Amino acid sequence: QSALTQPASVSGSPGQSITISCTGTSSDVGNYNLVSWYQEYPGKAPRVIIYEVTKRPPGFSNRFSGSKSGNTASLTISGLQAEDEADYYCCTYAGNNTLVFGGGTKLTVL
Amino acid sequence: QVHLQESGPGLVKPSETLSLTCIISDFSISSNNYWAWIRQPPGKGLEWIGTVYHSGSTYYNPSLKSRLTISVDTSKNQFSLKVSSVTAADTAVYFCARQIHCSSETCSLNWFDSWGQGTLVSVSS
After folding, report:
1. Nearest residue in A to B38, CA atom
2. Which of A33, A36, A45 is facing B118, going by the closest CB pair?
3. pLDDT one digit per residue (tens) for chain B, 125 residues
4. Does B48 sit within 8 Å of A99, measured CB to CB?
5. DSSP labels for B75-93?
6. Which side of chain A, N or C, has fewer Cβ within a 10 Å radius?
7. SS3 call for A86
8. Max CA separation in chain A (angstroms)
9. Which residue in A33, A93, A103 is closest to B45 by CB distance?
């Protein structure tokens, strides 16, 4: 069971859109629509921002969207804002009653 | 609004057993949800440790399974984590979380929708 692959860092300017990829295998990301994404600020607990690949928690900003193609899931943040600067993690069900996280991506808003 | 709070020693000696408890407030542990432990070594990413259901059914990260015990105490509305034979590599912030069991789509080990604040456990002599 290997960690999902995410870019270590991405950056963008306010108002732009960025996409964070999360690559797994046909046994995890590619096999289940159970990818979730978490936003983590320094010193704070993570919070879910996307679940079941594309769904947002009630009341959460629609600037955040999720998608999946094959073995790669993606998180897109549109209209980038300073407050979006954080670490982002993907997670998926990996079969056999196990879960796996991605290595995390640090988003910098320039 | 569920509230989760981790408690336990912040320092554990190598080769000993790390023990943490997650106290759940304003929500019943016996609901149709899972309860999970996740950890984060300093400066590193998140790692799923394991999940428990109120019935006592457990699901463990294969890489940690041989050293793990996760249990529930429904009378106290809390669940616990034990990691045996710890080393410096077990130094991390440990989070407990509520994990969705059944969504509108499926019943599985779904997403973590509420988290505790986390507690740092250091392994050092």
Report:
1. A101
2. A45
3. 899 999 999 999 999 999 999 999 999 999 989 999 999 999 999 999 999 999 999 999 999 999 999 999 999 999 999 999 999 999 999 999 999 998 877 888 999 999 999 999 999 99
4. yes
5. TTTEEEEEE-S--GGG-EE
6. C
7. coil
8. 41
9. A103
**Distance from the A79 Cα atom to the nearest Cα atom in chain B, whole angstroms:** 25
Q: Which two tokens stand for residue A7?
A: 């870019």
- Say yes or no for a CB contact (<8 Å) between B110 and A48: no
| Long-range residue pairs from A43-51, CB within 8 A, at least 24 positions apart, any chain | A44/B117, A45/B95, A45/B115, A45/B116, A45/B117, A45/B118, A46/A89, A46/B46, A46/B95, A46/B112, A46/B115, A47/B115, A48/B111, A48/B112, A48/B113, A49/A75, A49/A88, A50/A75, A51/B100, A51/B103, A51/B110, A51/B111, A51/B113
- In single-letter form, the type of residue at position B44 comes to K
The answer to whether A60 touches A73, Cβ cutoff 8 Å, is no
pLDDT digits over A46-69, tens only? 999 999 999 999 989 999 999 999
CA of B116: which chain A residue's CA is closest? A45
End-to-end CA separation in angstroms for chain B:
39
Pairwise CB contact (< 8 Å): A91 & B48: yes
